[in-house]
């Protein structure tokens, strides 16, 4: 998988890291959804894994959802 980023001039490293994390979160969610849709996960497994992803990225972003 190859991902390209357009980095605006003057973007601070911290902002770039956040943008990369947001893209990674979206890719992880899409991959999990694809697994569910192809029948590799039950609805319960999908819900559990979605929660794991939500927790992981909440910590990464410092969210307190």
UniProtKB/TrEMBL annotation:
This is Uncharacterized protein. It comes from marine sediment metagenome.
């Amino acid at each position: 998988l190859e991902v390209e980023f357009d980095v605006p001039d003057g973007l601070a490293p911290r902002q770039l890291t956040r943008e990369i994390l947001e893209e990674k979160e979206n890719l992880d969610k899409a991959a999990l959804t694809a697994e569910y849709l192809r029948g590799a996960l039950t609805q319960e497994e999908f819900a559990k894994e979605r929660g794991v992803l939500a927790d992981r990225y909440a910590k990464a972003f410092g969210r307190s959802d």
